[in-house]
Design a protein that fits this description.
Largest sheet: 3 strands, mixed
Structural class: mainly alpha
CATH class of the largest domain: Mainly Alpha
Shape: rod-shaped
Strand content: 5-15%
Low-confidence stretches: none
Number of strands: 5
Order of helices and strands: HHHHEEEEHEHHHHHH
CATH topology of the largest domain: Ferritin
Number of domains: 3
CATH superfamily of the largest domain: Ferritin, core subunit, four-helix bundle
């Protein structure tokens, strides 16, 4: 290794002044763990309480370069410097993310360079070899981030699927109540079915708005395949079309009869959402269906309370 005292000998040979500034610049290079730029050398000296201008640093580096004391490397378009130490030539691994630099010394690289330069009778003064990529720490962090993003993507897709399933269920309920209101001749029964249809319509509007907002916020969802088994079979499990058609809505169906029908349907819907939530492994998906189950339960309780009031009166 070129020692500090050899700088003094070099300056003497070149008949240059042995200034403290030159000694400090050389010391900063020797003490540096990486490959500092001119600005980084100045900043290091400033932290140590030494105010040395860039012009002085450039002049000193030029002397050291011409004398073979240091090597200059161009890394990402910026000149960087390192003292010439008797060690193998090395690669510079530069991380694209954190910009850290790691040296990889290699005797094989050194021998190959010496062989080629000897063959072409080329007097090498300095060289630099840079490989860009991702360091171990950043790679691990990136993998964690990708896993987190994938989990978030899954959760968002499940929410979309849950909304679409619930929309299909609410549409079937709305259709049933609307048709039932047209079948009965009883004014009280007709008003009850119309009110129930209006409530389903309100649920539909809120769910449709939530579904639109979700798709607007996450455009990629339009191309994302379903993560839940969204099929007509699931909707049939809650509101089977054939069974709905079998429900007797007669001319004399009253408001109490209509409430009885509605309570049975809401009870079935609530139970389905609750059972379906228990079979979903995804936490966010389970929560969505549990929320739907609570909504249906709340609606059911309101219908039961109204039924009791009517029967009591």
């Amino acid at each position: 290794m070129v020692h500090r005292k050899e700088l003094q000998q070099l300056l003497a040979e070149l008949k240059l002044k042995k200034t403290s500034q030159r000694a400090l610049i050389w010391k900063a290079l020797l003490d540096s763990k990486g490959h500092p730029s001119v600005e980084e050398i100045r900043d290091k000296l400033l932290k140590e309480g030494h105010r040395i201008g860039l012009a002085t640093i450039y002049r000193t580096l030029k002397i050291l370069l011409q004398s073979g004391f240091i090597r200059q490397s161009k890394i990402e378009g910026m000149a960087r410097y390192e003292p010439l130490i008797k060690q193998p030539n090395h690669l510079h691994f530069i991380c694209n993310i954190c910009r850290s630099t790691v040296e990889f010394p290699s005797r094989r690289i050194e021998n190959l360079i010496r062989q080629v330069t000897d063959e072409y009778e080329f007097d090498e003064r300095y060289s630099g070899y840079v490989i860009f990529g991702i360091c171990k720490a950043c790679f691990r962090q990136q993998r964690k981030l990708e896993a987190s993003n994938e989990q978030q993507r899954l959760e968002t897709t499940v929410v979309r699927d849950a909304l679409e399933l619930t929309l299909a269920i609410e549409r079937r309920g709305y259709t049933f109540y609307t048709n039932a209101s047209q079948k009965t001749k009883s004014s009280s029964g007709r008003r009850m079915f119309q009110r129930l249809a209006a409530e389903e319509s309100d649920h539909l509007r809120r769910l449709q708005q939530e579904h639109r907002s979700l798709l607007e916020k996450n455009q990629w969802l339009k191309r994302e395949p379903a993560r839940l088994p969204l099929s007509r079979k699931i909707v049939e499990e809650i509101f089977p079309q054939k069974e709905l058609l079998k429900i007797e809505v007669k001319d004399e169906t009253s408001d109490i009869d209509a409430l009885n029908i509605a309570m049975n349907l809401e009870r079935r819907s609530h139970q389905f959402f609750k059972d379906f939530a228990d079979h979903i492994a995804d936490t966010s998906g389970r929560k969505v269906f549990m929320d739907f189950a609570k909504d249906e339960e709340s609606h059911l309780k309101a219908l039961v309370a109204e039924y009791k009031t009517l029967v009591g009166s």
